[in-house]
Amino acid sequence: MKKRFRHVLLEELKAYSDKIICDGLGSIIFSKIKDESAPNVMICAHMDEVGFMVRSIDKLGMIHLITIGGVKPLAQFVQKVRITTKEGKKIPAVINATYNNGKAENIYADIGAYTEEDVYNLGINVGDMVTYTTSFEEFTLPDRLVGKAFDDRIGCFVMGEVLKELRKENLNCNIHFAATSSEEVGIRGAKTSTQLINPDIVFVIDVACAKNEL
């Protein structure tokens, strides 16, 4: 999913950038250059999202998962997801788990299979990614939206809009817009992007949980 989103960013923002770099972890940096000796300003937001990965498949066709990133415990019960195979095939599923002392355990995905052969015949294997399938929708109240991966693709959107607004500005600095990878598993992409840019100042755009979140 991150690769697809990175391609969308590239197509949307390449016309507004003087220089584009992709690093080894999959982050992409759009730069507006004043002068190589000018101060470097970095604005960053992460592209990756929370989700799951297939850990094992049992004889009854249940697909056991591990979490990737900070998946909230209550978001691991009776949720619609999509399993993406290595060939790119997308298989709908429902995840569930057992609840133990406020924690989700034994997370699994159910595709309606009866045997492990049913699962393997669809191309599903250990290591396949599993993501939520929440559709984008506007609520009745104004300026209220729901969708998947707003953490932090909404930040990437904001960053892109800033790049567009600054396209004709004569700035006294180089400004670098970094859409980073691997935030959910240890802010790895931000670290490598920072090494590439060597910024004098950094602005990070991210989301936060509501104070009344369960």
Which properties best describe this structure?
Elongation Factor Tu (Ef-tu), domain 3; 214 residues; alpha+beta
Structure described in brief:
With about 210 residues, the chain is an alpha+beta fold. The protein has helices at about 1-15, 115-120, 150-165, 190-195; strands at about 20, 30, 40-45, 50-55, 65-70, 80-85, 90-100, 105-110, 130, 135-140, 145, 175-180, 200-205.
Report on this structure.
- It comes from Clostridioides difficile.
- This is Exoaminopeptidase.
- GO terms for molecular function: aminopeptidase activity; metal ion binding.
- The chain has 214 residues and is of the alpha+beta class.
- The protein is built from four helices and 13 strands.
- The protein has a six-stranded antiparallel β-barrel with strand order 4-5-8-7-6-9. Strands 1-2-12-3-13 form a five-stranded mixed sheet, sandwiched between helices. The protein has a two-stranded antiparallel sheet with strand order 10-11.
- It is elongated, with a radius of gyration of 20 Å.
- It starts with a helix and ends in a 10-residue tail after the last strand.
- The mean pLDDT is 90.
Shape: elongated
Query: In CATH, what is the homologous superfamily of the largest domain?
Result: Zn peptidases
Number of strands: 13
CATH architectural arrangement of the largest domain: 3-Layer(aba) Sandwich
Counting copies of identical and different chains, the oligomeric state is single chain
The domain count comes to 2
Largest sheet: 6 strands, antiparallel, barrel
Order of helices and strands: HEEEEEEEEHEEEHEHE
Terminal Cα separation, in Å?
27 Å
CATH class of the largest domain, named Alpha Beta
Reading side by side through the largest sheet, how are the strands ordered?
A: 4-5-8-7-6-9
What is the CATH topology classification name of the largest domain? Answer: Aminopeptidase
Our count of helices gives 4
Average pLDDT metric: 90
Which structural class matches the secondary elements? alpha+beta
Strand proportion = 25-35%
| Poorly predicted spans | none
GO molecular function: aminopeptidase activity; metal ion binding
Organism: Clostridioides difficile
Enzyme class: hydrolase
Pfam families: Peptidase_M42 (PF05343)
